[in-house]
Amino acid sequence: MSAAPLSPDMILTNATVLTADATDSEAEAVAVYNGRIGAVGSASDIDALADRRTQKIDLKGRTVLPGLTDPHVHFADGGAHMMHRIDCRDFYSNVRSIPQITENISAEAARRPKDSWVVAHGSPMQDFRMPEGRFPTRQELDVAAPNNPVAINFGAHITIANSKALELAGIRAGTEAPAGGAIEFADDGSPTGKLVERAQYLVRNIVPEYTYDQMKDGVLFAADRCLARGITNIHDIVTNHESIRAYQELVDDGRLPIRVSILIRVIEAAIQKESLLNLGIKTGFGNDWLRIGGVKMSIDGGITGHVAKFYEPYVDDPCHEGLIRIEQDELDETIEAYHNAGHRVCIHAIGDVAMDMALNSIEKALHANPRDDHRHRVEHLGNWLVTPERMDQISRNNILPVPNIPFMHYIWDSLLACIGEERLEDSFNIRDMLDAGLQITSGSDGPAYWPLDSLRDLGTAVSRQTWTGTTVGADQAVSVREAIRMFTINAAYNAFEEKIKGSIETGKMADFAVLAENPYEVEPERIKDIAVDMTIVNGAIAFAREGADGLEY
């Protein structure tokens, strides 16, 4: 046992403590001093450190993990969307058809003044799961809300707008889409209302922005849901200064309940590419609650709308191969500039064309200016098409793939219909990447898409089971130990924070998830359903599940 002087502020005892340290050792108790872990060891040794001021929590055999991390979220805006937009997502609600979508929009329009915006959000690839097999049309939205501009996004890559919204945005027959975007037109030349990638911003830029208070409330709303699932750390992709200011004000007020690493989008954002460069700061700037985790950019779109860029056409749309949002020259220039300035770059690449662009661009920057510990990331890399050649390029350049296990869990059937069995043959090959020595973690892309739930993703990495019960690529399953490390110490490494978090060791932050059951002792398909009875952040109880049996504190 390692011990600290003075009496601890808190002791967690009578538990199975899965430390996620270098040897994956187990303990029975943990002592906390001033927000840090002061001692880890047997219940008798740790209990002996307590005095009358120590908060002693008898966990009655529960399991303690390091606080979990979700390294790819859209948090500040996603939380605000959940509070202030009409929810038409099939993963959150019972909306399963276009009439249900239009009914929700119509009801909201009836509550709003004429000409005020009605904004809704759906789920990625929801068109595949609705009986109509398509998105709603401009005309259907017109009928639902004839006196209001309407916009509904399906994921981050497609927006459907009604006639009033298109008129306000100046979109009509013959309107040219911005580079990296597309406007869909009907046979008669009129816009259908479907806007893809950068074309979405023609409408999004005229939708009223959230206030700072709404943004802060959105952060707290989403954070509560994270804490209820043992998540104490997120990496949030932010696109504007309002989000950053909202986070800063929450930190200043002592109200930010989870730790945040912000990934600042520098293309297709309100933040100019030169902003961080001109400030002279680097990745890691900040404090224990809020720090800069890197810069973010997107090469292509998503599978939704057929805008992820592939070499081969989509199975269900043989005339389309996807869309590039950033040309190679702009990508190379941006990555080189931020790499040279000491930043970590995080690049969205879903299609194989985009993957190769990202990998080649990072390799080019590293060749010109070698940097051993850059920890550059490619978002969504590892979902599919990680060939041996790409694996070699990833490994030799020490690139961190950040796959998205929820894509497998929630939209597997839609992916099959869209890009086909051949491209999905070796999808979500987590096993292969771990065997190659890569520090793999996984991001949810929530909360707008689906709930943030790292235990769900951890369990899916082990079970390989989708939400409909289909088993996908059983040979790529990982062990419970490996899955726990993906969302704890691997995720901490991903953020340059492995020395201060990610495992239960003396001196590290006292962030814990207390589980009702031990992941090693339940069936793999049940791991996702394990209840979180308590979440502790900085040595204080941030969440306690109502009705947790026998839990006293």
At CATH level 3, the topology of the domain at 81-204 is Diaminopimelate Epimerase, Chain A, domain 1
What characterizes the major β-sheet?
7 strands, parallel
Fraction in beta strands = 15-25%
Report the span from N to C terminus: 24 Å
In words, what does this structure look like?
- The protein has 553 residues and is α/β, with parallel strands linked by helices.
- Among the domains are: 10-67 and 509-544, Urease, subunit C, domain 1 (Roll); 81-204, Diaminopimelate Epimerase, Chain A, domain 1.
- Helix content is 31%, strand content 20%.
- The strands form four sheets. The chain has a seven-stranded parallel sheet with strand order 8-15-16-17-18-19-20. A six-stranded mixed sheet has the order 3-2-7-21-22-23, with no helix packed on it.
Q: Summary?
A:
It is built from 18 helices and 23 strands. The protein is α/β, with parallel strands linked by helices.
Give keywords:
553 residues, alpha/beta, Urease, subunit C, domain 1, Diaminopimelate Epimerase, Chain A, domain 1, seven-stranded parallel sheet, six-stranded mixed sheet, 23 strands, 20% strand
Task: Summarize the SSE layout with pairings.
Layout: E1 10-13, E2 16-18, E3 26-27, E4 29-33, E5 36-41, H1 43-47, E6 55-58, E7 63-66, E8 68-73, H2 76-84, E9 86-87, H3 98-111, E10 118-122, H4 126-129, H5 138-144, E11 150-154, E12 158-161, H6 163-169, E13 181-185, E14 191-197, H7 201-204, H8 212-227, E15 231-238, H9 241-252, E16 259-265, H10 274-279, E17 290-298, H11 328-340, E18 345-348, H12 352-368, E19 377-379, H13 388-396, E20 400-402, H14 405-423, H15 430-435, H16 454-463, H17 480-486, H18 489-494, E21 512-515, E22 532-537, E23 540-544
Parallel strand pairs: 1-6, 2-7, 8-15, 9-10, 10-11, 15-16, 16-17, 17-18, 18-19, 19-20
Antiparallel strand pairs: 1-4, 2-3, 4-5, 7-21, 11-12, 12-14, 13-14, 21-22, 22-23
